[in-house]
Write a structure and sequence with these properties.
290 residues; alpha+beta; M1 Pyruvate Kinase, Domain 3; 2 domains; 16% helix; 34% strand
């Protein structure tokens, strides 16, 4: 089977539901508006499904430029796209160990989110003055190890409120293998949305992504700079927000490494311009780690 893009997904609000795409714009920062918003609690600490599984039930979409949020039992809420965001005061935000900047989207959406989630919180969008970069340690190590790609490949990669990198890429065959093991234990199979990837590829063997330095599609070159260690979020049903022990137990049984329980790869990209697009079905060339 030839290697191709099977599906594309963005998550405009960090840790809320995703949007599926047949095609989408892409920049060096990620897919179109991926994780450009984050919900913070009253202490200003970013919130995720790890502690607030109900966030999975908040569904974003776009109406022209505006963000629209919906959830069961709540009226739809439109968050206008602010063209004057440069003039808004920046708010300090820490995502794990990295400090960045956001700006507050106002009281109306804060009240909407607080009512649905049952605690006081606010919505921030990436501030135009924010400059958060993917881990130089991992990017530099990749560049040093992949001199055939390194010529002209950017050394700095800015992105929004994602955990650590602008892209997460997953392999459908790896999920198929996990589901085979789950079914053998009389456990239900899980969909790929448990792992919240941006790009899902088809045509590799199970976990073959472990051995890739990256992939190329059209003029876009993705560097696989770090395998992704998984938190408990894959145990949360994204349609009900109910958490269970699986698939975490089964995944850990065959994917436990010194860096954690691994599934998928974190990536940065070269070649993304103002008119770059990704499409489901695009052919992909795999580059192996030699």
């Amino acid at each position: 089977m030839s290697l191709r893009i099977l599906s594309l997904h963005s998550y405009p609000v960090k840790s809320c539901a995703g949007i599926d795409h047949t095609d989408t714009a892409i920049t060096a920062r990620g897919l179109y508006r991926d994780r450009q918003w984050v919900i913070v609690d009253e202490q200003g600490i970013f919130m995720t499904q790890r502690q607030h599984a109900r966030m999975a039930l908040i569904q974003p979409r776009f109406l022209e430029a505006d963000l629209v949020l919906s959830a069961t039992g709540m009226p739809e809420l439109t968050v206008p796209w602010s063209t004057g965001s440069q003039s808004l005061p920046p708010v300090n935000v820490r995502i794990w160990k990295q400090d960045t900047l956001g700006f507050d989207e106002g009281d109306a959406v804060a009240q909407w989110l607080s009512q649905f989630l049952g605690l006081s919180c606010r919505l921030l969008r990436v501030h135009p003055d924010a400059h958060r970069t993917a881990s130089p340690l991992h990017v530099d190590a990749w560049l040093e190890h992949n001199t055939d790609w390194a010529d002209g490949f950017p050394t700095s990669h800015e992105f929004g409120f994602a955990d650590g990198f602008p892209f997460l890429i997953a392999n459908q065959s790896s999920l198929d293998e996990l589901n085979r093991r789950l079914l053998a234990k009389a456990q239900p199979a899980v969909p790929m949305n448990r792992f919240r990837p941006n790009i899902v590829v088809q045509g590799l063997d199970a976990y073959e992504e472990d051995y890739l330095a990256g992939m190329q599609t059209g003029g876009l070159m993705f560097a696989f700079v770090k395998r992704c260690a998984r938190c408990p979020i894959p145990n949360i049903d994204q349609t009900t927000a109910v958490s269970a022990p699986e698939p975490g137990i089964t995944l850990a049984e065959h994917r436990q490494f010194k860096d954690g329980v691994l599934f998928g790869v974190n990536a940065v990209v070269s070649g993304a311009g103002p008119n770059s697009l990704l499409r489901v079905g695009d052919a992909v060339d795999a580059h192996y780690d030699l």
